[in-house]
Amino acid sequence: MNRTLDVFQPRGYDSSVVKIKYPKGEEDMRKVLSVFIAVCLVLSLFTGIFVSLPSAKAANLGVWTQISLKMLVYPELQAQVHCLAVDPITPSILYADTGEGVFRSTNSGVTWKQASAGLPTFGVLCLAINPKTPTALYAGTLMDGVFRSTNSGSTWTAVNTGFTATSAPCIAINPGKTSTVYIGTNGYGIFRSTNGGNSWLPANTGLPNDYPQEIRSITADPLIAATLYVSNSIGRLFRSVDSGDHWVAIGNNSPGVNAFAINPVTPTTLYAGTTNGVFLSIDGGATWNATSAGFPDRTSILSLAIDPRTPTTLYASTSGHSVFCSTDSGKTWSSINTYLKGCPETFDDITSLVLSSTKSGTILYGVTQASSGLYRYVPVPTMSKKTTIAVLHIGVSKFTVDGVTKTLDSPPVIKNGRTLVPIRAIIEALAGTVGWNATTKKATVTLGKKTIALWIGKSVATVNGVSTPIDSIDTKVVPEIINGRTMLPLRFVSENLGATVVWAAATQTITITYTP
To answer: For the domain 388-514, what is the CATH superfamily, name and number?
Structure first.
């Protein structure tokens, strides 16, 4: 049964024990299989031959290791880590807050030094690093507002001019204009600074103000700097497309949204971690569906993280069930609780996950906020076909291919309810070709084993030589020359070449996904 974001309620867990009795025929088969496995093991021992047996598909390979961060007062004990931040330019630099202040590591957690001068000893709730100038950091605290460091944490200064709240549980920095910073509060909504924290103003138009609510997360669109998403403590989600000037509710009023994540390549793909699993939106939050296959029933999600190198890979930390991984964009999930010798047999709940992309691969960090401290997980990459993702916006000439910005000859336009684009740059980015015959006004598009021929002003094209209507509903949808550029119907061309197209009306974003 499909679930949507408005149909679940948090419930307790029921437990039962089931004893399975096998039919006689099945019991005989199990005996035969047991004998076969035993023979395989004997052969491997005495002949050096290893026999491959069928096995369940794992999410990915890899193990967790505990990172040593000891307490100052009791150096024999692991420190309780409250939050973690990784330098986006130099991933070996980590910042972690403990009950004894903020600590900094320059060697991926092998050694740590205190970096807390000017901060309160207790109560740092979150840390954020400027993605363009990583020597600049912000810290949100429980009782003392916001602090800023401009020297990699060596010293901190309170920056609370105009900030009328005291608690600051989350921070987001605009990835395009890093002087714009957002602070989520407990009971006072959102504050925004446009000058790097020197001063703050409320940015709450459209957010509920009927009673105090904690802002659980603020997430900035990695490609469209003006678009942000907010979740609050009563489970509601909001979106702003004007840098926080106005907010609009998305989804329905549902309790329990604990975590939020955006696909960095396809930012209209959103994930919400709730008290009842993970929910997915592929249209910028307009609609949501459950995507929790593999989780135990009624699993509460505490944190979500998306692999920046392979955005189809996600990680989710849970309450009571440790960490899960999906390698298919959230369709299915598998537990990845594998430990090296010497690690605890069970995790405390990992309350937050932080991903770091290095030259050698991706590293996942898990924060427990408990006596077992901090963990590192290094996944082993799996071999798969290369998927290319292109993201376009109506009226904008810039577009991205796998996160890399490129330029169209002319911006996409909407005409007769369909999107027209200058297709050459897009097809060439997918490793295809585009030909043009000026005499017959014919465009030929080839990608893989598919070839499409279209003619200016004609509503019928050919796909591998087969005559095909461009739009079965509206014959007015035809290729056109606009401002001297040949504009082709995007969806018809893309889908007939084997790509998928997703349209997000709220942000006027088109996402094209192609796997050879």
So the answer is: Copper amine oxidase-like, N-terminal domain (3.30.457.10)
